Amino acid sequence: MPVRSDDLVARALDHDRRAVAKLISMVERGGDDAHEVVARLYRRTGGAYTVGITGAPGAGKSTLTDKLVAGIRADGAEVGVLAVDPSSPFTGGAILGDRIRMQEHATDDGVFIRSMATRGHLGGLALATPQAVRILDAAGMPWVIVETVGVGQVEVEIAGAADTTVVVVTPGWGDAVQANKAGLLEIADVLVVNKADRDGADETARDLEVMLDLSDLGAGDWRPPVVRAVAATGEGVGDVWDAVLTHRAHLEDTGGLERRRTERTRAELRAIVAHRIQEQAAGACSGSAFDAAAAAVLAREIDPYEAADKLLEDVHGG
Amino acid sequence: MPVRSDDLVARALDHDRRAVAKLISMVERGGDDAHEVVARLYRRTGGAYTVGITGAPGAGKSTLTDKLVAGIRADGAEVGVLAVDPSSPFTGGAILGDRIRMQEHATDDGVFIRSMATRGHLGGLALATPQAVRILDAAGMPWVIVETVGVGQVEVEIAGAADTTVVVVTPGWGDAVQANKAGLLEIADVLVVNKADRDGADETARDLEVMLDLSDLGAGDWRPPVVRAVAATGEGVGDVWDAVLTHRAHLEDTGGLERRRTERTRAELRAIVAHRIQEQAAGACSGSAFDAAAAAVLAREIDPYEAADKLLEDVHGG
Question: pLDDT digits over B83-111, tens only?
């Protein structure tokens, strides 16, 4: 495996799309291979700017992403797209919509689109996504879009872990995603009212502005612009991208980008430590050593705290 | 502290109520003192039979408990009561209702009543309660009643960690605690319809029987009896206690008591290991070592997985 991942990393750094796809599968699976991949290319990252796109199901996120990708390509830049769907059991391009999208850009080597779905638990996906972003980053993509359904805590977290986060809503969205509304608004750097040709678009845009008025933005704080678009026809998509570029310039001018990336790195480090420790806990609480410890506690040969300490010593010693 | 807890443990084993109260405060605070107390008296435990009493707020749990206590005392046995209220910020007899109850039994050395409430987080209380039970056990109480409001997951867990669990409902309870109904029924060994002189008692008892009919009890499995009572007048309280004794006999005859205590011990051991590991994670993710690790990751001197491993090595080495 070391030799193979060495070779794959070398090819990925050389923009080889198949090598990139294989490396993403490796980080998706997690474990030692994933760590090795990250170790091999981490020093080559830092060049990409990430854009998160999230919103309720049916808000038109994929359509908007596709139109943004077309715009980026028209400017001549390369772009990677990770479509993260924690609720889907499929991975690696197996999703129908994903295949259709792949086809659209099939002849364009400057676009890399990839679905990531749940292999095992959600926590795994939350950890795997930033690693997949790093692979695209190391492969020389100046833009990486992470698209995710803004339904649960994990999805919002994944989309929020971007340099600029775009939250897509539609007229009347409020009733549908009431529970998660606050979480979505909190991570938004750009708010898009998509399907703005439908009834209620004005009201939805006004509601969002009122909510922003009521939020406690300080002087100099970024106020998320509310942009109307009809992604299906391309109307307003240029305005969405302009808003992303304006937010990027704001972050770069104010030192916000560095602060944001610092906080993200710290959060990721915490998440990896927690994940490692959970693995250790699972190891300590299974197998014959655990059975023996529980039996000794039950027989009152040892008290439960002492037993727990011994189990943990065994894990750390081994 | 070692000398002091030594002395307190010796006095508690000698049925000294003030020493018992002080030891419970120590396990409530958690940390090394708690572990030391448990280590010192754990081998003297195993004689007590625990009864959990839970139900929605206002179901009459305290009144039922008091009447059961009076019955146990009439039989000449000693009894300890832990009233666990995770939602209350008060501890150690500071609760008004608790003081009133203490007064009632103030002249009776055979009863020990104590409130336990949240000091810090809920997980702490879930861990502290079994330790408090052990203190009463080691102090020679043959019966320990753990009373808790059956509102959240933790409360249900605490009440369910008894040899026999009594779930108290009232006519029309279903609407009030809909969300937690299934969880409460799942842990019930004895179901009490309290305030059975009120309208709807027949219907409530019938509903419970139907639910039990629909549950997948196997041949030889214990079917929780549905007992009607009016705790305030004492009506039916004898029947409740008979049901507890019948369940105890069933557990003892079928080996169920040993199985139940084995599973409880294993669950507690897992909880202590998880708690220890959380402490380690918190330690690894704070302080200057963490700041330095995050800065090194951000500077791309080291990758996040390597940084996490180094932080964990430091924790385990120290």
Answer: 987 655 444 333 445 545 555 666 677 89
Question: Residue A37's closest CA among B308, B305, B310?
Answer: B305
Return all residues near A56 (Cβ < 8 A) that are at least 6 apart: A149, A150, A151, A169, A170, A173, A176, A177, A180
Q: What is the pTM of this model?
A: 0.69
Interatomic CA distance for residues A156 and A187, integer angstroms: 8
Say how far residue B173 (Cα) sits from the centre of its chain: 22
Domains and CATH numbers, chain B: 46-254 (3.40.50.300), 285-317 (no CATH)
Neighboring chain B residues of A266 at a CB cutoff of 8 Å? 290, 294
Please report, for residues A163, A266, B77, B235, the alpha-carbon distance to residue B240 in angstroms, rounded to integers and kept in the order given. Answer: 62, 55, 17, 10
How much of chain B is in helix, strand and coil states, percent to nearest 5?
60, 15, 25
- Are residues A277 and B276, on separate chains, in Cβ contact within 8 Å? no
Q: How many CB pairs below 8 A link A and B?
A: 114
Distances, alpha carbon B94 to alpha carbons A152, B91, B101, B145, B231, in Å: 40, 6, 12, 19, 25
SS (H, E, C) A245-276: HHHHHHHHHHCHHHHHHHHHHHHHHHHHHHHH
Express each pLDDT in B292-304 by its tens digit. 999 999 999 999 9
Q: Which of A127, A260, A285, A306 is the mutation pick for testing B, counting most B CBs within 10 A? A: A285
